[in-house]
Amino acid sequence: MLNKTIKTVSPQEAVKVIKSGDHVHLSSVASAPHSLINAMCERGRAGELKNVHIHHLHTEGPAPYAEPEFEGIFQMDSFFVGSNVRKSTQAGYADYIPIFLSETQKLYREGYIKCNVAMIQVCPPDEHGFVSLGTSVDATLAAVETADYVIAVVNPNVPRAFGDALIPLSMIDIFVEGNEPLEPAHFTQPDEIETAIGKHCAALIEDGATLQMGIGAIPNAVLAQLGNHKNLGIHTEMFADGVLPLVEKGVINGACKGIDKGKMVSTFLMGSQKVYDFIHNNPLVLMMDVGYTNDPFIIAKNPRVTAINSALQVDLTGQVCADSLGTKFFSGVGGQVDFIYGASRSIGGKAIIAMPSVTNKGISKIAPTLADGAGVVTTRNHIHWFVTEHGAVNLYGKTLQERARLLISVAHPDHREALDKAAFERFGSHFKFMF
Ligand code: COA
Description:
Layout: E1 8-9, H1 11-14, E2 23-26, H2 34-45, E3 52-55, E4 74-78, H3 83-91, E5 95-96, H4 104-109, E6 117-122, E7 130-132, H5 140-146, E8 149-154, E9 162-163, E10 166-168, E11 174-177, H6 192-204, E12 210-213, H7 218-223, E13 233-235, E14 238-239, H8 244-248, E15 264-266, E16 268-269, H9 273-279, E17 285-287, H10 290-293, H11 296-299, E18 305-309, E19 313-315, E20 320-321, E21 324-325, E22 328-329, H12 336-345, E23 350-354, E24 366-367, E25 385-388, E26 391-394, H13 400-409, H14 413-427
Parallel strand pairs: 1-11, 2-3, 2-6, 3-4, 4-5, 6-8, 8-11, 9-17, 12-13, 12-18, 13-15, 14-16, 15-17, 18-23, 19-24, 23-25
Antiparallel strand pairs: 7-10, 19-20, 21-22, 25-26
Helix pairs in contact: 13-14
Bound molecules: coenzyme A.
């Protein structure tokens, strides 16, 4: 018993509500409920379940249900391909639903996917009978609203975050006690190339800007360069450790935001324990539904929205692939298009795609055409700023040939000649007379 009003059961007892054919939602990233996942997998191994669909954004920690041993028992259909399910997805055991992050909640709310069971983690209840979803509001709130059964691990390590994260106990059907620490995400220090990219991006960020930083190595490299900026705000889908020193220094204060002035707005978090401690009982931070944080028209209510996202490949016309390496899915569309479009509609906004010019094997990430099977995440119509360690160029309003010229100017010097030749072959001899 957690207290007099809440009856708890064991994880094994709780997951008995899952039936063959059900759709189960898991809360995301740090907040994946591993005790429930393990108990569900025990039932799978015991032959008690068949064709159970599992949905989530990405999760930290193990994802055993996506492994080949559970073929026919669990079918993972994720909304984003994280590192723990990448191999299974590429091998076809697990699958991926291409979807803008802003619309993941709509899958449940509008009934495209039935949520039978939502398995989540929450902090202990407050004196008013509210718990917090902590680091994972995203599509989890929609899953909680629509599920037949909500199973919650009540875990004192889940931060009591505010905003849409706060839900009444009455939304939960089954309680389980837990004390597992939240899974931290690990980031390396920015290297020389990432630091150069960070500096080019920082030069584009104006005082008073509202920032969104995507996933991957680049965001922390950018944030590390913002120590002398003023009055920055945060309206994003996720943030990590890089924002904390800027909040402490008063650089991030949300003073110029158009909505949620003075507040940092996010929908999930992915960082170290420091980030989870930072949001605990912190009225500065609003953890909101992904239908709010990632709606381009809400994003655009803030002035000077500067969205910085990374990519795997770009072609010479500005088509950006960020979710697959050729036919192999590496991640997902996530919130990239939501924020690129939102930033482009914001007054004084800047939409930025930032990535190293070459891979760690020296392959150019700026290519004449996208690899066979690669899909377009940010279209050539959506792209604005493009940044590598060699500089920043703005492709918006530029012709195809101008774009090719600009992209080649920020390609790795070892690849510029080959890219120039490819552009010449594509656009004809007049390409050499450009500029
Ligand atoms: N050709 C071949 N391999 C490539 C490649 C290319 N053009 N580009 C990258 N790779 C390889 C890298 O070498 C690396 O390989 P490794 O794992 O063996 O080291 C791997 O692919 C990942 O590349 P990296 O540049 O390290 O990725 P990242 O961690 O910085 O993440 C994205 C970049 C694009 C995957 C990530 O930003 C993403 O998922 N974006 C889509 C979603 C999004 O933008 N959401 C917005 C807000 S969260």
